[in-house]
Each structure stands twice: as C-alpha cells, then as structure tokens.
Design the sequence.
C-alpha cells in the first residue's frame, strides 16, 4: 500500500465566520485586538467569550460601553444527531443582545442559527456557520464589514411568501390563523 492509501482521512472543520461592524470603527478602533488575518482554532470544550476584559475574553472589543464579558459562544453536538451547533448566551447585565429578532436578557441563551445577525448597542455581527465533522475543535474566521450589515445583507425571510406575492402579515396581524387555499380558488 502507498502512503496515500494509509494516510488519515481528512476531516472538515466547523468554522464560525463572524463579520463585525460598528459605525465608529474607523475613529475608535474597537476591533484592533481581533485577528482578521487568519482562521483560529478553538478547542471544542472552550467557551468563546466576547467582551472588553482581556483576561476573561478570547475576543476583545476595545470599547468602554461593552461589558467586561458581553456574550459567549459554546460549541456542542446536537442530541441524537451527528450535527454540531453553537449556543449563544448573553453575559451582560446591562445590555440586551438580539439574535435576528430574538432579544436575550442576562443569562438567556439560544441556539445560534446557521446564519444570523447578532446586535448589541451599535455593534452588528453577522454570524455564518460552515459545517464540518471534526469533534475536538472548531475554527473562527473574523471579517470586518465596511458598511452596516443590517443594510448590506438581506437575511432569508422567516415567513414563506405565497406565489401570488401577497404577504400574509396583514391577515396574521388581525389574529387570524393562516388557512390553506387551493390556487384555483383565487
């Protein structure tokens, strides 16, 4: 057998892409301690913390309006599945954190969607999960956005849009539940 045949099977690694934006980033340089140049490995059992305290946080934001520990991301394996995910937890007592439109108070946590926008204060972070198989670690890849993320990208709509193009939000806002209509009845 050749060395190629005996080589270990190459694993793909789960990578969390995080794109940061703040309107004052050019003047205040709050992202100067983040490594935007290359991917960084994080052990699966480590909690990735974001905040201004460099002794407690792996990812430092140099801004006095950011909590010492703002939020954390925990890598985990989903129960009864081979898929991996991330859990996000708000660790700030003073600032609420939103993940898409879900607001998290202090110590609230949810599963991080595969693609979402995390906001607190004037900070916007686009999080995108690239799936992999490795179990011992994951990677983070940080990016810096030039323009606001909320205006730059459109996230997929959470509500399906019917073929006739009429949004069901009007009928849902009146407290009625959606009903299925045969397209020939229109």
Sequence:
């Amino acid at each position: 057998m050749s060395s190629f045949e005996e080589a270990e099977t190459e694993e793909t690694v789960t990578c969390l892409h995080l794109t940061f934006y703040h309107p004052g980033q050019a003047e205040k340089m709050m992202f100067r301690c983040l490594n935007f140049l290359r991917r960084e490995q994080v052990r699966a059992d480590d909690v990735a913390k974001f905040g201004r305290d460099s002794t407690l946080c792996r990812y430092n934001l140099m801004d006095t309006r950011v909590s010492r520990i703002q939020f954390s991301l925990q890598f985990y394996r989903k129960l009864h599945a081979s898929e991996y995910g991330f859990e996000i937890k708000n660790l700030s007592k003073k600032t609420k954190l939103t993940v898409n439109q879900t607001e998290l108070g202090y110590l609230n946590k949810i599963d991080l969607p595969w693609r979402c926008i995390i906001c607190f204060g004037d900070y916007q972070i686009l999080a995108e999960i690239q799936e992999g198989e490795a179990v011992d670690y994951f990677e983070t890849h940080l990016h810096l956005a030039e323009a606001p993320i909320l205006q730059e990208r459109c996230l997929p709509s959470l509500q399906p849009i019917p073929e006739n193009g009429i949004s069901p939000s009007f009928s849902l806002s009146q407290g009625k539940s959606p009903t299925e209509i045969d397209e020939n009845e229109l």
In short: Helices lie at 3-6, 25-28, 149-152, 169-173.
